[in-house]
Specification:
The complex is a heterodimer of chains A (311) and B (263).
Chain A lengths: L5 H44 L5 H5 L12 H32 L4 H13 L4 H15 L6 H25 L3 H9 L4 H29 L3 H6 L36 H9 L5 H34 L3
Helix pairs in contact in A: 1-11, 3-6, 3-8, 3-10, 5-6, 6-8, 7-8, 8-11, 10-11
Chain B lengths: L1 E2 L9 E12 L2 E12 L3 E5 L6 H7 L10 E9 L4 E2 L7 H7 E4 L10 H11 L5 H14 L3 H4 L12 H13 L5 E5 L7 H14 L4 E5 L3 H7 L2 E6 L2 E7 H6 L4 H7 L5
Parallel strand pairs in B: 1-11, 4-9, 4-10, 7-8, 8-9
Antiparallel strand pairs in B: 2-3, 2-5, 5-6, 10-11
Helix pairs in contact in B: 3-4, 3-6, 4-6, 6-7
The chains are: A mainly alpha (311), B alpha/beta (263).
The complex binds adenosine-5'-triphosphate and magnesium ion.
InterPro entries (chain A): MetI-like, MetI-like_sf, Phosphate_PstA
Keywords (chain A): Cell membrane, Membrane, Transmembrane, Transmembrane helix, Transport
Pfam families (chain A): BPD_transp_1
């Protein structure tokens, strides 16, 4: 090739820069569209529901009169279901992820498991509901309880937890693992002192993203039979319950009937009285707030991880 | 293979490779290596890139066992107990408890300086705070790092400079009193001053531990080692006293490599 003159070089660079600018503009436009949709949705719900967003809205049960209805049983229910979901999905998912990354030898069996986990993430959530109805509600006899709901959603987010655990583990350099094994550590010691702590921020990020998905799930929860109207809270441990005055056990609440935020919203939108739509918008705004703050927590964790764990 | 001087016993042996071959799956990376490792001496491994130095070194602490598909043939006898390190009956963890390793790139854990050095002891079940303190200080002193870090033992190890990190990794390996210490190009990521510090350290350490060191740097091999082995394409071409290998190598290929005509 012949030598280019300075003029030709400059023209070439100018053309390249032009494309840079074009691509940047395109990216910003796409980003703006995405952000605008979220802002519009949240803003719209906020505007329509703002008159109901006061303390009473959070401390009152649902009622037949829209103006006095609140989301107390719904947000408490959502929180407790998430607690069970997390308590079940985290140990199971993390253990499975660690096993697959650190212990299992590559073979066709692990390949099949891998494909299955990926597919599991794509199973429609209603199918998990049907499965749970058969297994948790009837076979295990957990009934239409917080426990059944929590375990169902745990199944739903298990693939997310497993995949994020494996990704977090894979981002740990091999030389760290070798450094640990080289002083005579066992696999378990290496996991306990290094792999798990270093992967933890990544695992937590996955767990939170999973929970943020689970908290908005409606279909499987309806399938296993959450109540749409409920005017009591699950028993608080060690307090007197009901008429007999007996003290509630530490885990009695898991067997309690419940409702959750999305079901409450669904219930309100299906009422003929338009006043309930205001409630639905307000509750939708609160649910959005819950999900977004969970995502914010995940982002913050990731940021902290990048800052504190360097190789 | 040509050997010099090993017929007349000069020093007791710490280890001896006997007809050692190694396979990465179907790839034969080591081809029937025989070589003595003299006790409390520094043995350098030299040879062109890809000749199998790291592969050979990592056989001594069974590092290859971490990955599937790897296979050893032959023996590495370890003295004085005459154990075959490669035997299927010998637990690789037991081997690693006796043979320490320092890697090419410093690989401190993202934990405190103290925890990095204490790790090997914790793995062995030591939890007594006073004893840990004592052993950690001892190891850091042996690694010539104590004076630089004694006021910030709780600082994160990755905040140290590259040379300090490498000495920290040496301290980590020393804390558990290994009988044999493996170095895989420990100074290739360091500047000349940090390199000098490590070389001096190696010289100091051979009073108490046997050392096997891979290096690409001919001067380094000449400076720090008592014995030198030249490897080529997975074979041990020549082994002998460092002086003799560098002054009057027996094998043409060794001479070519040392004089820079190859490699
Ligand atoms: N994991 C592996 N799988 C397959 N072949 C490998 C693997 N690691 C190394 N090899 C091959 O084994 C041979 C020896 O490699 P080794 O890393 O021991 O060389 P080396 O002498 O240490 O080289 P260098 O001086 O560049 O570090 C090379 O041909 C290399 O390609
Ligand atoms: Mg190498």
């Amino acid at each position: 090739m012949h030598t280019m003159t300075p003029g030709q070089i400059r023209a070439l660079i100018a053309r390249g820069k032009m494309r840079d600018t074009l691509f940047q503009a395109l990216g910003i436009i796409c980003l703006a569209i995405g952000l605008m949709v979220i802002f519009l949705l949240v803003g719209d719900m906020l505007m329509r529901g703002v008159e109901r967003l006061n303390i009473e809205f959070f401390t009152e049960f649902a009622s037949r009169r829209a103006a006095q209805s609140g989301i107390l049983s719904a947000w408490v229910g959502s929180l407790l279901v998430m607690l069970v979901t997390g308590a079940a999905a985290v140990p199971l998912g993390v253990a499975a992820g660690i096993y697959l990354e650190e212990y299992a030898r590559r073979s066709w069996v692990t390949d099949i498991i891998e494909i299955n986990i990926t597919n599991l993430a794509a199973v429609p959530s209603i199918v998990y509901g049907l499965l749970a109805l058969g297994i948790f509600v009837y076979t295990f006899g957990f009934g239409q309880s917080i426990l059944s709901a929590g375990l169902t959603l745990a199944l739903l987010i298990l693939p997310i937890v497993i995949v994020s655990t494996r990704e977090a583990i894979r981002s740990i350099p091999a030389m760290i693992r070798e450094g640990s094994m080289a002083v005579g550590a066992t696999r378990w010691q290496t996991c306990r002192y290094h792999i798990i702590p270093y992967a933890m921020p990544g695992i937590l990020t996955g767990v939170i993203i999973g929970l943020a998905r689970a908290i908005g799930e409606t279909a499987p929860i309806i399938t296993i039979g959450a109540l749409t109207f409920i005017a009591f809270l699950p028993p608080v441990p060690f307090t007197a319950t009901g008429m007999d005055g007996a003290s509630a056990g530490l885990f009695d609440w898991v067997m309690s009937p419940f409702t959750v935020m999305p079901i409450q919203i669904f219930n309100w939108t299906s009422r003929p009285d338009p006043a309930f739509e205001v409630n639905a918008a307000a509750a939708g705004f609160v649910l959005m707030g819950m999900v977004l703050s969970m995502n914010a927590l995940a982002i913050w964790l990731r940021y902290r991880m990048r800052k504190t764990i360097k190789w | 293979m040509q050997t010099q001087d090993i017929t007349q016993p000069q020093h007791p042996l710490k280890a001896e490779a006997r007809n050692l071959s190694f396979y990465y799956g179907a790839v034969k990376a080591l081809k029937g290596i025989n070589m003595p490792i003299h006790d409390k001496k520094v043995t350098a491994l030299i040879g062109p890139s890809g000749c199998g130095k790291s592969t050979y070194l990592r056989s001594f602490n069974r590092m290859h066992d971490l990955y599937p598909g790897n296979r050893y043939e032959g023996e590495i006898r370890f003295f004085p107990d005459n154990t075959n390190l490669l035997s299927a009956d010998v637990d690789p963890i037991e081997v690693r408890m006796r043979v320490g390793m320092v890697f090419q790139k410093p690989n401190p854990f993202p934990k405190s300086i103290f925890e990095n050095v204490a790790y090997g002891l914790r793995v062995r079940g030591l939890s007594n705070k006073r004893l840990l303190d004592e052993k950690v200080e001892q190891a850091l002193r042996s690694a010539a790092l104590w004076d630089e870090v004694k006021d910030r033992l709780q600082a994160l190890a990755p905040t140290l400079s590259g040379g300090q990190q490498q000495r920290l990794c040496i301290a980590r390996a020393l804390a558990t009193d290994p009988e044999l210490l493996l170095f895989d190009e420990p100074t290739s990521a360091l500047d000349p001053i940090a390199t000098g510090a490590i070389e001096e350290l190696v010289h100091e350490l051979k009073k108490r531990v046997t050392i096997l060191i891979v290096t690409h740097n001919m001067q380094q091999a000449a400076r720090v080692s008592d014995y030198t082995a030249y490897m080529y394409l997975g074979e041990m071409i020549e082994f002998g006293n460092t002086d003799e290998i560098f002054m009057k190598p027996n094998d043409r290929r060794t001479e070519d490599y040392i004089t820079g005509r190859m490699g």
